[in-house]
Design a protein that fits this description.
Layout: E1 2-7, H1 12-26, E2 31-36, H2 43-54, E3 61-65, H3 66-74, H4 82-88, H5 90-93, H6 96-102, E4 103-104, E5 107-108, E6 110-112, E7 116-117, E8 120-124, H7 125-130, H8 139-151, E9 155-158, H9 163-178, H10 180-188, H11 192-195, H12 198-211, H13 223-231, E10 235-239, H14 244-250, E11 259-263, E12 271-274, E13 276-280, H15 288-299, H16 301-311, H17 327-342, E14 345-347, H18 357-371, H19 377-391
Parallel strand pairs: 1-2, 1-3, 9-10, 12-14
Antiparallel strand pairs: 3-13, 4-5, 6-13, 7-12, 8-10, 8-11
Helix pairs in contact: 1-14, 1-16, 9-10, 9-12, 9-18, 12-19, 18-19
């Protein structure tokens, strides 16, 4: 058999990780037809998918995130993996907040390949050592560190001016400023009081402060190029999900020696996540066995380990050993287990796991307009309330 897989994993670290899955399937005699569509958030890939499904020729499997999965499930074009999931015991090992996106109407429709968490900061260790900096654990310590890095002539905060990247920082700042319950109220429950609160104004004030540490050429920069600035010692920090770690590893760097990974100050003990899942589409009976093997391969503990070691993320299964993972990976797995046990594991707004696409885009628009100086913080709060209400 053969599988055709639509995805947007095209950067160095991502392509290396995907290769692990290709090789695993090839060892089982299953051919891999690659269908990469570049674009960090997957928007272009979803456009290609719509055209394929409309033409009655869907791929075998599609990399997908969050509410996009549920939107496609509603359309009745996805395949049912429930029999395989039950036989393999997926429900016992996948955290419930992740399962919310793997299932629809009680049926398993996707195989989660990983859990990424978004509230990370990546830092150049040489710059930190040179300036005598330690990992900041509070907002004030973070600002003091950014000030020192900027004063030393480096770019303090490597960032790409794209709406989803702005929103990734916003996620962490909402969590750090108001706490995880405020994050849930504002970005998951979409409570107008939380969205319009003084706390949210403080969030926007902090976003404006972070904007002062970004270089002039940030507009339109891809996330992996911002990672490269930290890797190459041009910038001190990047606020990005743990897919960034794949870029550091791909560049031959070692955590603790060349770069540092730490939770965004104020978000310790919580995890905002997104999970890459392969959604299976309805294909002909002759393609079905290969599709089932693909789903099984994705969920195998050995694959979940080898894939996520390369990708920078952690397994979607909670029963996978952390033995093969580096220091950042071990920390990420421990943090995920802690957050899952404590009920502080929540979907990332920036990455489509907190609210449906229309709401996500409405929040993107306000956050990016404010970050680019179009609104002051007070106006941004008003615009946020109105935009979310209009998008629901």
């Amino acid at each position: 058999g053969q599988v055709e897989v639509l995805h947007w994993w095209t950067s160095g670290g991502e392509a290396a990780a995907l290769n692990v899955l290709k090789e695993d399937l090839q060892s089982k005699g299953i051919g891999w037809q690659d269908m990469p569509v570049a674009g960090g958030g997957g928007e272009q890939a979803m456009t290609v998918l719509r055209a394929r499904v409309t033409a009655g020729n869907p791929p075998t499997a599609v990399q997908m995130l969050g509410y996009d999965i549920r939107d496609w499930a509603e359309q009745g074009v996805v395949a049912d993996l429930s029999e395989t999931a039950k036989a393999e015991g997926w429900a016992e090992v996948v955290p419930e907040p992740v399962q919310f996106f793997s299932t629809y109407d009680g049926a398993w429709i996707a195989a989660p390949v990983n859990v990424h968490s978004t509230n990370w900061i990546w830092a150049n260790k040489q710059i930190f050592d040179e300036l005598g900096l330690s990992e900041p654990t509070s907002w004030d310590e973070l600002i003091a560190a950014l000030d020192k890095i900027q004063e030393a002539g480096y770019v303090a905060l490597a960032h790409g001016g794209q709406d989803w990247q702005d929103a990734t920082i916003f996620d962490a700042v909402v969590n750090a400023t108001g706490g995880i319950e405020f994050y849930k109220a504002a970005l998951i429950d979409l409570d107008p009081e939380a969205l319009g609160s003084d706390t949210m104004k403080e969030v926007f004030d902090r976003m404006a402060k972070l904007r002062t540490y970004v270089d002039d050429n940030f507009s339109g920069r891809d996330w992996n190029l911002a990672s490269a600035m930290v890797i190459e010692g041009k910038a001190g920090m990047q606020m990005m999900g743990d897919w960034a770690k794949g870029e550091f590893i791909n560049a031959g760097q070692t955590p603790g020696e060349d770069f540092l990974c730490f939770r965004h100050p104020g978000t310790q003990g919580t995890v905002t996540f997104n999970t890459d899942q392969f959604v299976m589409f309805q294909v002909g009976e002759e393609q079905r066995p290969a599709q089932i093997e693909l789903a099984k391969s994705i969920m195998e503990p050995s694959f979940q380990s080898s894939f996520n070691v390369v990708k920078g993320s952690v397994p979607a299964r909670t029963d996978v050993s952390d033995e093969a993972f580096d220091a950042c990976g071990k920390k990420a797995m421990a943090d995920l287990a802690e957050a899952n046990a404590n009920g502080t594991l929540y979907g990332s707004l920036a990455h489509g796991h907190a609210a449906p696409a229309a709401v996500k885009q409405a929040i993107y628009d306000v956050v990016t307009a404010h970050f680019n100086g179009e609104y002051d913080s007070e106006t941004a709060v008003e615009e946020l309330v109105n935009a979310v209400e209009a998008a629901q």
